[in-house]
Design a protein that fits this description.
This protein has 184 residues and is mainly beta. It contains three helices and 13 strands. The protein has a single domain, classed as Hypothetical Protein Tm1070, Chain: A (Sandwich). The strands form four sheets. Strands 5, 7, 10, 12 and 13 form a five-stranded antiparallel beta sheet that branches. It has a four-stranded antiparallel beta sheet with strand order 6-11-8-9, with no helix packed on it. It has a two-stranded parallel sheet with strand order 1-4.
Length: 184
C-alpha cells in the first residue's frame, strides 16, 4: 500500500499531512487462520505524482542489506521476498519499474543468485539457490546479503522478507508469519 496525501481537487497537500496520514494493510487467509499485516509507505513529498523512491524503507540501487532465513527442510519454513520496484512517478499504468536483485548466502560462501522483478513480485529464496547451497542450509537456515543492481534502467525497491510456516511439526494448526521490512 502506498499512501499520498495530495488532494487532486484542490491541487494541494498540507505540510502537516506528510507526517500525519498513514496507512496499514492486513492480508487474511480465513480458511487456515493466517494473517499478515504491514505498515504502508508514506510519500512525504506530497505532490500530484508521488515519488515513493524517496520514502522510508526503500532500498536504493547499489545498496546492500543483510537478511536471515529459517531452515527449509521438511517444509518447515519458507522465506520469500516481496519486491516492489519504485520510481519518481508511481501514478501511471505505463510507469513500470524493474529491479535486479543479487543474493549471496554468507554461511555457505555461495555464488551470487539473481532475480529480476518488474512491477511487483515474490521471490522464493529456495527457488534461486543452487542445489548444493540449498542442501547445506536446509537444516540450519542462515544469513546473507541482498544487493540491488545499480546499472542503468534498474530501480530502487521496497522489499519485505517473509518467513512463514504451516508445519504441524512446529504448530498445532494455523500458520506463523514473520514479516520484516528490509532497508529500514
Amino acid at each position: 500500500m502506498l499512501v499520498n496525501h495530495y488532494d487532486k481537487d484542490t491541487k494541494t497537500a498540507s505540510k502537516e499531512g506528510a507526517n500525519t496520514l498513514m496507512g496499514q494493510a492486513t492480508v487474511m487467509e480465513i480458511q487456515s487462520g493466517s494473517a499478515w499485516g504491514y505498515q504502508a509507505f508514506n510519500d512525504t513529498k506530497a505532490d500530484e505524482k508521488p515519488d515513493f523512491s524517496k520514502s522510508g524503507g526503500v532500498i536504493s540501487t547499489d545498496q546492500s542489506v543483510p537478511f536471515t532465513f529459517q531452515p527449509s527442510a521438511s517444509s518447515q519454513w519458507t522465506t520469500k521476498f516481496f519486491v516492489t520496484p519504485v520510481g519518481t512517478d508511481m501514478t501511471g499504468a505505463s510507469s513500470q519499474y524493474s529491479s535486479h536483485l543479487k543474493f549471496t548466502i554468507h554461511n555457505q560462501n555461495s555464488a551470487n543468485m539473481v532475480s529480476d522483478i518488474t512491477c511487483t513480485g515474490a521471490i522464493d529464496l529456495a527457488d534461486i539457490m543452487s542445489t548444493a547451497t540449498l542442501q547445506n542450509v536446509e537444516d540450519t537456515g542462515g544469513w546473507g546479503t541482498l544487493t540491488l543492481d545499480g546499472d542503468s534502467g534498474y530501480s530502487p525497491a521496497i522489499i519485505f522478507k517473509l518467513d512463514y510456516t504451516y508445519s504441524e511439526d512446529i504448530l498445532q494448526s494455523g500458520s506463523a508469519n514473520n514479516g520484516i521490512l528490509l532497508g529500514n
